[in-house]
Amino acid sequence: MKYSAVIVDDEHIGRENLTSLLEDYCPQVEIIGKAGHADEAFTIINDTKPDVVFLDIQMPQKTGFDLLDEFEDREFLVIFVTAYDQYGIPAVKAGGLDYLLKPISIKDLKEAVRKAAEIITSKQEYIDLQLKLEEQSAPGPNDIPLGELPVQTSQEHLCLPYLHGFTIVEISKIVRIEAENNCAMVFLDDGKKQLITRSLRDFEELLDNSQFVRIHRTHIINLKYMVSYASRDGHWAIMSDGERIDIARRRLSTFFDKVANFARFFTKRTT
Do 162 and 112 belong to one domain? Predict the structure, then answer.
């Protein structure tokens, strides 16, 4: 199975060196685009929809982190490739799958590609399974057309796919969902968590948006488990598990509307 990739590096020699290494040691990777700066990379990634982006961090005008911030929902995996070792923690926070230092170790490169391949393959297997299930459930000549079946407006459980299978959870027990690479980490009310091979956008479409609210590019929260809101040094949703989740400024209006519909507010008396 081939995995498509885009290389983003402001240095021509850096792009060509990585190309040679991938061709020699990771033939399963097909390079479908190269970019020398963030704006060019944004266009190429949107046009080609790669599985993986090998991304430099320190570039003119915009950094690799700035580039990632321009994607509301990231459908690609990110492997950072940089000459600087001080970006390890920011790279993790930005959802990088791996972090390769120049000069690139062949062993580390092959391991990063292996991890990417495992995630991509797992997601494709789940998609194939879904298609098979849809084919098997297609109506026969004597069946009621799907469009005439009553719509199920509520569901108590959700089937969550992970790397080598799936798990079923009660929707009411989901505390929050955090983007991780192009997957999602689901946090439950018993303290357990599960890495799921789906994006936040998928969860937005599946879950009741009167209770589950996307408050940030990287977070969906369940209002049932939000215990307070704080506006000092930013805007924060404090959850029952103790986590403080950043609320993006452009999502504040929607957030307040959802909270107002979910819980009663005290209002000022006029008498």
Answer: no
pLDDT in tens, 168-217: 889 999 999 998 877 889 999 999 998 887 888 888 888 888 899 999 98
| Whole-angstrom distance, CA of residue 27 vs CA of residue 85 | 27
Instruction: Please name the helix (run of DSSP H) or strand (run of DSSP E) that holds residue 113, with its range, or none.
Output: helix 106-136
* Alpha carbons 136 and 220: distance in angstroms, whole number: 32
The CATH number covering residue 108 comes to: 3.40.50.2300
Cα torsion at 224, 226, 228, 231 (round to 10°)?
-130
**Of 55, 77, 67, 74, whose CA–CA distance to 3 is shortest?**
77
In a domain, 159, yes or no: yes
Q: What's phi and psi for 147, nearest 5 deg?
A: -65, -20
* Domain co-membership, 29 together with 101: yes
Share of the chain above pLDDT 90, in %: 56
